[in-house]
Specification:
Radius of gyration: 21 Å
Strand order of the largest sheet: 3-5-4
Structural class: mainly alpha
Distance between the termini: 19 Å
Shape: globular
Strand content: 5-15%
Number of domains: 2
Oligomer: single chain
Largest sheet: 3 strands, antiparallel
Length: 235
């Protein structure tokens, strides 16, 4: 069973997605929180054994530098440096946002003009999952990445766990579907509460995506960064 996650167009696209969820000016976002979400996303991709492009890793190293500077205690207030990496990063995100909006505007104009010309039949493939309130499968994945990071930290602090390799997506789907039948709705964090390894969490997450794909489950998020709720769907 192959489940492909819709990827971002690059690290700036991912950062813009995270920044825009705060619905404030780019220069007012809590940059440390954004960095932590970015790093959690990358760590989750690696845990799921998905290939991470080099440009994402380069950005990750730059973000870790910015985060370390933000967390260092400030003994005295100093004038901002001309080459402040945080300001430079936010400027890049703002510039990328302008170009992306312009690109989307051109694309909309192209689609409008295309209505007046005959075009050959095209096959449309759309693997994304749409959540309520303009959410996407990436919102679900980003939420999962944060949950997995927290879970990994707790597992490291507890006893050593020998991971099993015999987790099957089909078994997880059946178990989760039965649980939804009984409880009707479950928060995403509760779905993974009893997992004892990264492998188990990844398999359960893929099972969750597959249930959504076949309409056995639905997901909702009432507000940005709010709890994601999994509900029993109508297949």
């Amino acid at each position: 069973m192959d489940i492909k996650l819709k990827d971002f167009e690059g690290p700036l696209d991912l950062l813009l997605h995270l920044v825009s969820k705060y619905q404030v000016d780019i220069y007012d976002v809590p940059i440390v929180e954004v960095i932590e979400q970015y790093l959690a996303y990358i760590e989750t991709l690696q845990a799921m054994k998905l290939e991470v492009a080099g440009e994402y890793m380069v950005m990750a190293s730059q973000l870790m530098l910015i985060k370390s500077r933000k967390l260092l205690p400030k003994v005295v207030e100093m004038a901002p440096e001309e080459d402040d990496p945080e300001v430079e990063l936010l400027s890049k995100i703002e510039e990328y946002k302008r170009f992306k909006e312009l690109s989307q505007e051109f694309s909309a104009q192209h689609d409008e003009r295309a209505k007046f010309f005959a075009k050959p039949k095209q096959e449309l493939i759309f693997d994304d999952v749409t959540l309520n309130h303009d959410k996407s499968v990436m919102d679900l994945f980003l939420s999962f990445s944060q949950i997995m990071t927290q879970k990994q930290n707790r597992l490291r602090q507890s006893h050593t766990v020998i991971e099993k390799d015999d987790f099957r997506i089909e078994d997880m789907m059946a178990s989760l579907n039965q649980r939804l039948t009984e409880e009707r709705e479950i928060s995403l964090s509760d779905v993974f509460a009893d997992c004892q390894s990264v492998t188990e969490m990844v398999t359960l997450f893929l099972a969750t995506l597959e249930l959504i794909k076949v309409h056995e489950a639905t997901v909702e998020q009432e507000e940005n960064f709010g709890q994601i709720i999994l509900r029993k769907g109508e297949a």
